[in-house]
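Collaborator request, handled under Task 6.
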Amino acid sequence: MPQWTRRQLALQLAAFVALLAVAPHLARAAAPPGPEARAFMTRAFAMLDAAVAAGDQPYGA
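Structure tokens returned to the collaborator:
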């Protein structure tokens, strides 16, 4: 079994506490988008497709 110094143990504890603090935010960010976001993206891509079909170049030259 390795011998940990107090500093190493403190750093490991701090990293663990930081991970616990950000875990809910990471879980929320990884969750699939809700119905409002899906509807918005569907409309946005439909508008982009219509612009491309009309001959526009929405991304520039």
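The cover message to the collaborator said: "The longest helix spans residues 6-30. Residues 1-30 form one domain. Please let us know whether this matches your experimental observations."
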